Predict the 3D structure of the following.
Amino acid sequence: MKRISIPRAELHTHLGGAVDPPILWSLAHYQGIKLPSKDYWDFEDLVTIDENEKNKNIKELHNRFYYWTELIQSSPYAVEMSVKSIIGGGYRKCNLVLQELRFNPMFRNHKGKKDLDHIIMAAVRGMDEAVLEYPKVKAGIILMMDRTLSLRENKIILEKAIKYKNRGVIGIDLAGPQKRDFNIRDYKSLFDKAKNYGLGTTIHTGEEGSLAEMRYIVNEINPDRIGHGLLCVKDKNLMKQIVKNDIVLETCVSSNLRNSKVKNLTEMGKIIKTYLDNNIKFTINTDGPEMYRTNIFKEQELLRKAGILTPRQIKQCNDWAFEASFIPHNTYS
Ligand SMILES: [Zn+2]
């Protein structure tokens, strides 16, 4: 019997944070990857961050956690199995009927030793298998560029997103910690090109980094959506521009708490109240359900129980997620 009946949409999930640890464990063993421990429970601790743990920043998140999941997912087989398991799991656990999944193919090709096209097509295969198994689900892949890669490398990722647009790639993202020689202004033309080819655009900003970068992204790049965007609450004009441009913020509460971007739920409540007071559209997401030991349903419950959102407001966020999705879909019931 289906236990959770409300159809839900998830727009912000990273492949590296979304695979159930026992599946990752088996994938690591299947490929003969040397892990720091022979015991499963040590491994589970290695790839998950529970409520009592905190990363100092996004860099620590990448160095401590994504290092392992990206290493294990660095083969076509592992990518295919990972994508398949996430989409099926989302439907079973949360009735996710619309699921967008994002990853950086260049962090899964052993620094050029594996072919990027094979990695991307493996993700498409995994997605196709999942929607055959779960026909009520619609899914799509967002390819990610990264601030720590060169402009040349990121241009290659964009070209791949364009190439596979009709095969299940629905959008392009930019993520990663700030790096000294990174300049967001170099990326306007890339996002313009993505839009011209009909790709959805989203950018991680306002999570860390500067308000100046977020202002440039909102005013000049004008993506469809922004990953996190927390910093905008400090700038009334920026919030007005977000509303004017109809940009939707992808909010990831547990992730922000575990990565020290937001101190506690009280602070999160203030941020979300500011969004509501300023008519900013936002969606509830996990960022990485298995890594943060959460899921969309749990995130919604967290906000409801903390008195941050009412059930009606949660429904509104879910409706916004369906509206803002890059996946072509009709309506849902
Ligand atoms: Zn993210």
